[in-house]
Specification:
393 residues; alpha/beta; Quinone Oxidoreductase, Chain A, domain 1; seven-stranded mixed beta sheet; 13 helices; 25% helix; globular
Length: 393
């Protein structure tokens, strides 16, 4: 079968790899109809993880069941299914508590596993014609409709970015009337803002510098903050001061109550975009979020970064103002999204017309075009906000 294979830094190829085969009675093989490129795939593409050459990439798949093992009972051949990026057994201590993102049975090196990702187990990725799914009853979520229908682009986003947006709003404590600042207008940041709006947030600010992404933020009713026009914290504070949005709380509550970090460890310096500052977003949110507020860090961070800007960054260590965070009584939530907790609920919002996350999808392209799509996405080129690969095209 054809698959997207990492060859080295900023080099991928679409190559023939062996077809998957059922190896355990709880396995399934799924024919992929859509596989999205994730912003976190770019960290491997850029050579900023421990991923080695030969890794099949991709962890956002939607498809149709082709074959099941002898002990699979919930799905059958022909079913349309969504695969959460987390691979989980469903029965270990963490899975039973809802933390399928930290399954204890699927990765000998750490808690949690995923398709085609550095440090998250030996599993082949999903940017391919077919995918082997372990513990298929746990890791396949049934979807209505038929391949390539009006829900195709929405459903594939349930594998990661839509649930991650919702998870971010959970961690940040978003509820009706709250004020929210999202840093990063990539797919996760845009969907975090969208989820905040779905949950009734009173104000949603989205910070970035890329025009077409900021336009998408404005299109869902968020307020776009372009950091190339000045300090984004001051821009948000000026708006809230000018419009009297913090009048009841007084000057100590001029910031927002909920902050969402959707950039990750390759964040750039707002004053010098050629320079990385890995902790700049967390630091900004410590300063912007009001006392007793909450911060969600759902942008990716890794314990080993070969391209880190200093010896500490290479080990995933960053300096932040923890004393200020503590003094303000801020809560900081982190980690990978337990997608299975949210996928069915968000699917139903899509089916009933309450949610349309595919507003972020900007390009659909054949699997064979993956090298060009990765290069353009990595450059944040116009029209490459969210790319979906189509193996059958």
């Amino acid at each position: 079968m054809q698959a997207v294979v990492l060859k080295g830094p900023r080099t991928i190829a679409v190559e023939n790899v062996p077809d998957p085969v059922i190896a355990a009675p709880m396995d399934a093989i799924v024919r992929i109809t859509s596989a999205a490129i994730c912003g976190s795939d770019l960290h491997m593409y850029d050579g900023r993880t421990t991923a080695g050459a030969g890794l099949v990439l991709g962890h956002e798949p939607l498809g149709v069941v082709e074959e099941v093992g002898s002990e699979v009972t919930r799905i059958r051949r022909g079913d349309r299914v969504l695969m959460p990026f987390n691979i989980a057994c469903g029965t270990c201590f963490n899975c039973k508590r809802g933390f399928t993102s930290a399954c204890l049975a699927v990765n000998p090196d750490s808690a949690g596993a995923a398709y085609g990702y550095a440090g998250l187990g030996p599993y082949r990725g999903a940017q391919a014609e077919y995918l082997l799914v372990p513990f298929a009853d746990q890791n396949c979520v049934a979807m209505p409709g038929t391949p390539h229908d009006e829900w195709e682009d929405d459903f594939v986003l349930l594998a990661d970015v839509f649930p991650t947006g919702w998870y971010a709003t959970d961690l940040a404590g978003v509820e009706e009337g709250t004020s929210v600042a999202v840093f990063g207008a990539g797919p996760v940041g845009l969907l975090a803002a969208y989820c905040a709006i779905l949950r009734g947030a009173g104000e949603v600010y989205v910070v970035d510098c890329i025009a077409d992404r900021l336009r998408k933020a404005e299109g869902i009713g968020a307020r776009a903050i372009d950091f190339s026009a000045g300090d984004p914290i001051e821009q948000i504070l000026d708006i809230r001061r000018r419009e009297g949005l913090a009048a009841l709380g007084g000057p100590q509550m001029l910031g927002v109550m909920c902050g969402i970090e959707a950039v990750g460890y390759q964040a750039i310096d707002w004053k010098n975009r050629a320079r990385e500052r890995p902790s700049i977003v967390i630091e900004a949110l410590i300063n912007l979020v009001n006392p007793t507020g909450r911060i969600a860090a759902v942008g990716l961070y890794v314990p080993h970064d070969p391209g880190g800007i200093n010896p500490h960054a290479k080990k995933g260590a960053f300096q932040i103002s923890f004393g200020r965070l503590w003094a303000k009584g801020l809560s900081l939530g982190t980690g990978q999204t337990p997608v299975a907790k949210y996928a069915s609920m968000l699917r139903d919002l899509i089916v009933t017309g309450r949610a349309k996350p595919s507003f972020i999808v900007s390009r659909r392209t054949p699997l064979k075009s993956a090298p060009e799509a990765y290069a353009m996405f990595d450059r944040r080129a116009e029209g490459y906000v969210k790319v979906i690969l189509k193996p059958a095209w």
